[in-house]
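Weekly puzzle thread! Below is a chain. First person to post its structure in token form gets bragging rights.
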Amino acid sequence: APIPPAEHADPPPMSKDFVVEFEVQLSPGKKGVISIVFRHDWAPLGVARVRELVEDKFFDQVRFFRVLKGFMAQFGISGDPAKQRKWSKSIRDDPVVESNRRGFVTFAMAGKHTRSTQLFINFGDNIFLDKQGFSPVGKVIAGMDVVDGVYAGHKEKPSQHLITSQGNSYLEREFKELSYIVSATLKPAPPL
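Winning reply:
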């Protein structure tokens, strides 16, 4: 008798959790990799936005434009003003499930429901941000030494308005020392 064809099960659904490997240019001749796991259960809306941004190569060539040692390193304004405009629509807030401790990654915001593309990595334990509604979306799982090595000499000097309107041409002209993301790559998440 002929052997019936094998049953084909549906492939498992793509995990809602994922890792992003950020290749970072810290300074001329010095690179590193920051691996961040993004957990859907922590902040489903924020994590979905991060996936969309990475899939669109939004973070490629993005500078760490606001770096305050002991507090956080902020990035997420595109070096391409057209790409920044494409993603400027805000997303709603997620409830705060995790805490803003060292290595946790959170969307920057300017009030309720204003998260869009800017993220920051906590250098220290900033749990005071939890009560302000800053909901972590991920955590550095490798490369925290790279985060600690991000250029911090300009602190808050780069103008977010000028980055948004002029992109990397402004930053390369006025703040060429800034560390930046060369590329961001999606990877499967490790098991919990």
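Puzzle host: Confirmed. Bonus trivia for everyone else. The helical segments are 44-55, 81-86, 144-148, 160-166, 168-174.
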